[in-house]
Amino acid sequence: MEFGARRRFVYPGTRDSGDCEAPEMTVTEAAGATTAAPDARPVAARTTDAVKEYGRGDALVRALDGITISFAKGQFSAIMGPSGSGKSTLLHCLAGLDRLTSGTIHIGDVELGRLNDRQLTLLRRVRVGFIFQSFNLVPTLSALDNIVLPLTIAGRKPDPAALADVVRITGLGDRLKHRPNQLSGGQQQRVAAARAIVSRPEIIFADEPTGNLDSKASSDLLDFLRHAVDELGQTIIMVTHDPLAAAHADRVVFLADGHVVSELQSPTADSILDVMRHLGG
Amino acid sequence: MIGVSLRSLLSHKLRLALTTIAVILGVSFVAGTFILTDTINSTFMSIFATANAGVAVTVHGHPIAGQTGGVGGGQNHPVPTSLLATVRAVPGVKDAVGNIFREGATLIGNEGKPIGGNGPPTFGANWITDSEISPYHLRSGTPPAQADDVVVDAGTAAKNALVLGQSLPIVFLGGVEEHFTITGIAGYGTSDNLAGATIALFTEATAGRVLEAGNKYDSILVSAQTGVTDVVLRERLAKALPSYTEAETGQQAAAAAEQSTESTISTFIGTPLLVFAFISLFVGSFLIINTFNILVAQRTRELALLRALGATRAQVMTSVLVEAAVTGLIASILGFAAGILIARALLSLFGSAATGSVTLLPRTFIVAVLVGTIVTLIAATLPARRATRIAPVAALSEALPETQPLPRRRVLIGLGIFVLGAAALVAGLFTSNSVTLQLIGVGFLGVFLGVALLAPLLVVPVATVIGWPVRRLRGASGLLAGENARRNPRRTALTAAALMIGLALVTCVAVLTDSVRVSTNNAIEGTLKADYIVFAQGPGFNTQAAQALAQDSALTDVTEVRTTSVLIGGSSQNIFAIDPASLGSVLSLTMISGDPSVIASTNTALLDSTEAAASGVHQGQTVTFAFPQGAAVRMRVGGIYTANALVSGYIVSLATMQPNVPDARDDIVLANAARGVSAGTAERALHQDVNAFPLLKAMSRSEYRSFVGASLDSFLNLITTLLAFAIIIAVLGIANTLALSVLERTREIGVLRALGMTRSQTRSMVRWESVIISLLGAVLGLTVGLGLGVVVAGSLHDLGITNVAIPGGNLILYAVAAGVFGVLAAIIPTIRAARVDILRAIATE
User: Does residue A209 sit at the B interface (CB-CB below 8 Å)?
Assistant: First the structure.
């Protein structure tokens, strides 16, 4: 499989380098460096000087303080950072759920800032998938209806083969007619993951997807996401604070105080913990 | 704990706003009705008091049987004019005057149209020369002196721009116009007129002639010499006068008039309005139950926390009830204020003289506040009981069960109430007893409550069926709308049931009016043979019209139809009288036995088969008619016919009836085109003849059919208008439920928006949920209404309602209207749903 080769890219660990100027960084230097990903693969999403401020006056909070970053297609990226580091804000802005105060965000070649609410909505519908921490399934719909909901909203019929594929890898075959409240947390989150993936969006954004799951369910879900990247070429950007979860990613970006402060390629739980310890210290 | 519920009340004030409006609407209807009737009553009270101020004693005949009651009191038999001298001779009498005061003097306004038409009565009277006794007080001009002089009341003069010296055409008893000159304008007592009625005052001779009083007075008004009390004078008069008279003091007369007026207004205005006010409150209570249920559900955590912290069940119950009581109290007070506005609006609509100030009795305020608060409290009891069942552990649990299955007990209770209601309804409709109306009312209530309790069972199947096309048309929005409508069947059912009640009542009345329409049309087709029908909208008219038509060579078979009420076996019945010679040419009665011509022999009657069966009367049997004038006449039943919507009950000949009634008044005149005369010519001739009688209408059979249809339509419109309050409250209820549901589902809506649902799709989702709820209400309402209408119409067979008809057009209209109500109810909830902030909605707590 095409993306199987990706694992051959081995980058030096950042074990002894918390410096954000480290040469291994994929952080681009300036706006316009659109293809700055080191592997030179197409970019799924990128931000340029992304600034997001909340409040005003004394209460002004800069959640994103000029972030410039790209995410390659077909990659599983994790964003980590302590509370208040801006990781959720970055995810929300990338996903078109929130708007920047200044700077730009591109999904593919579309700049989100230029879109009105309706266009943003359509972009979310067609090009983006979501997995939330608290599953957020629609309680009135069966598992299957929840999975195909983005397609239903778009007025499209699911491709039966693709749907069967997704259903197969979720392992939910016999529970498709059940409503969310008849499913376990892990099953619900797999439904949510299948829902995110069924329309084959350009990017799936996952916001603490394992936050409400036990370790077994977490591991199942992360395997599922890994499969989606490896076998379907899916691009996933995941916010998490769990090093074990982040270790499933191809790349981990560390945020603190609205800045990208570090990054790891092909991380392991240990290497992530090292960076965290370093940043925390 | 009370502090907690008050704080909760304040924080939920927006959510309670619609509940408050529902209570306000219901209470304002109740308060408005009381204020309206109190104001009308007090207007009459002051009129009677001032008008009778100078009258010590009134002398009149005994009350006419069957003519008791009414505004101003019942009718009494007149007394001969010669009695006046006898009265004057009684010691202590200062002066006595004869009083002629009768309905039937219609003024023709400056535009040539009758004044007062179908509205307030049109009185004619003699000018009373003794100004101490007279209730009439000249404001300008002079009393009537010549035969063609008239004094009109100040209210009518002002309203219709009548001025001194002008010529005024007046129609008496449906006859031809006569021309008078206005010589004066007078007030009645201290009022401008008799609460909106017109009064025309003539010389005694003219009044006697035009009002056909004969040599009789309707009463004799007596004043007392100084030192003689009213009571003493009344006793002296009672002793001195013949036994056919009665004497009352002025105070007694006023009190009797007041009492009769009060009960008449209560019967014809107060009670019907209160029924509709009650319906509004009943519907409003559904809204209150739903609101408090939702509030309790939303506060489950908070209440559970209170329980965990040691609050008892009683305290939790109290906290909900205190919230309800305060809401009810505030809403009731506002409702009372709104009631004043409603009463004022209605008074000016009625064109009443009492537009100045409304009568506010403490009783009205107390009733309004009690009714509003108690209804709110009772409605909140069920949710409060639910609140007490919240386990303290619920404070800790994450998800709440969205739906609970309908307990069996509730299904059984619902079925029981429904069956009892249906039984009461059938008992009320099909058996004769003294509590018929109460049984029917209880029956309707039971049916509505039963259906409302069972409705949750119907939500899922009906919403699925209604939801199917919505799903097809509106994709995800439609799918979710249908699912949302079904997710909490009890809430949806209660919301829809509120709309059901209004729609069911409208449908029921529509079925009734359509049944009357079809039955009447059938009767016009089958029974009415006459080409033309002439009638007045009001009391019977004098025989001038029939005479004029009889002389027209273009017409033939001119037949007078008269009615009067008689007592048969103690109950009052309307009987028809008609000329047997032409009966066969104008009516074709379906005879079961005997021949219509039998009524040619005196004191022989025809009777319809339904009434015959009900009263157990057979052909050949004799029954006794007690005529209002006192004569008891034995009638032989000579034939039995089938009742229809035009004719039912007893039919006799004019010759049989006439000797027993004082005046010859026609209610209907029927005629045919003369042989060889074209329909056009005959119709022209008819209209030309009838033109001379401004109060009469002349119609061909087909015109008459449309006329009946139009009257039925306006009746249906009146009922629909009165039910509008109930329907508005139900629509508010839908808006309320949706708004609270949107609030509950904020997170879900945020997720849907994140998944790519546009704002317009979000709006569409809420709007279609609303439409589905409304249509569920329509399905229930139309079904229940049809059932009730068919049963009620079926029970009116003895009133000639031979056909039960279903007005398909109206039903479709109501269903469409319900859909529109759904869209309207959703306006604010859709805005709220579309405004949901995605990030805030999906943020993890």
Answer: no
Pairwise CB contact (< 8 Å): B752 & A126: no
Q: How far apart are CA B825 and CA B11, in angstroms?
A: 23
User: Does the distance separating the beta carbons of A136 and B748 come in below 8 Å?
Assistant: yes
* Cα A229 to Cα A246: distance, rounded to the nearest angstrom: 14
Let me know: does B778 contact B819? Beta carbons within 8 Å.
Answer: yes
Tokens of B845: 């707590």
Chain A partners within 8 Å of B748 (Cβ): 136, 138-139
- Which chain A residue has the Cα nearest residue B835? A117
pLDDT at A2: 37
Between B491 and A3, the higher pLDDT residue = B491
B399 in contact with A at a CB cutoff of 8 Å? yes
pLDDT, position B9: 64
| pLDDT tens digits, one per residue of B179-205 | 999 999 999 887 887 777 889 999 999
Using CA atoms, how far apart are residues A12 and A39, in angstroms rounded to an integer? 14
Q: Count Cβ atoms below 10 Å from residue B825 Cβ, excluding itself.
A: 27
Residues 147-176 of A with CB under 8 A from B: 149-150, 152-155
Q: Which of B756, B838, B839 sits opposite A125 (nearest CB)?
A: B756
Structure letter (DSSP) for residue B402: S
Residue A13 has pLDDT above 70, yes or no: no
Whether B757 sits inside 8 A of A195 (CB atoms) is: no
Chain B residues inside the 8 Å CB shell of A154? 756
Q: Which residue has the tokens 């009146």?
A: B718
- The answer to whether ipTM exceeds 0.85 is no
B182, B168 contact by CB (below 8 A): yes
Contact A124/B754, CB-based, under 8 Å?
A: yes
- Tokens read off for B754: 């994140």
Contacts of B402 in chain A (CB under 8 A): 139, 181
Q: For position A251, what pLDDT does the model report?
A: 95
Residue B722 pLDDT > 70: yes
Q: How confident is residue B117, by pLDDT bands cut at 50, 70 and 90?
A: low
- The per-residue pLDDT for range A101-123, each reduced to its tens digit, is 999 999 988 999 999 888 888 88
Least confident of B228-237, B386-395, B670-679, B699-708: B386-395
A98 contacts in chain B (CB < 8 Å): 839
Residues in chain B: 845
Residue, of B596 and A37, whose pLDDT is higher: B596
Mean of per-residue pLDDT scores for chain B:
87
Interface check A211 vs B, CB under 8 A: yes
Residue B204 contacts residue B171 (beta carbons within 8 Å): no
Q: For residues A252 and A44, what is the distance between their CA atoms, to the nearest angstrom?
A: 16
Could you tell me which of B15, B10, B21 has the C-alpha nearest to residue B832? B15
If one counts every other C-beta atom within 10 angstroms of the C-beta of residue A216, the result is 9
For residue range B62-113, what is the model confidence (pLDDT) as tens digits? 887 666 666 766 788 899 999 999 999 999 999 999 999 988 899 999 888 8
Residue B310 burial (CB count, 10 A): 8
**Share above pLDDT 70 across residues of chain B, in percent, rounded to a whole number:** 94
Whether B353 and B196 have beta carbons less than 8 Å apart is answered as: yes
Residue A121 sits at the chain B interface (C-beta within 8 Å): yes
State the residue for tokens 């990338």: A94
Report the distance separating Cα B703 and Cα B8, nearest Å.
63
Q: Which two tokens stand for residue B85?
A: 């001298």
- Alpha-carbon torsion, ordered B9, B11, B13, B19, to 10 deg: -60
Q: Are B480 and A130 a contacting pair at CB < 8 A?
A: no
Which residues in chain A touch residue B759, judged by CB atoms under 8 angstroms apart?
Answer: 117-118, 121
pLDDT of residue B88: 93
Q: Which three-class secondary structure state does DSSP give residue B287?
A: helix
What average pLDDT does this structure show over A130-137? 86
Give chain A's radius of gyration (CA, Å): 18
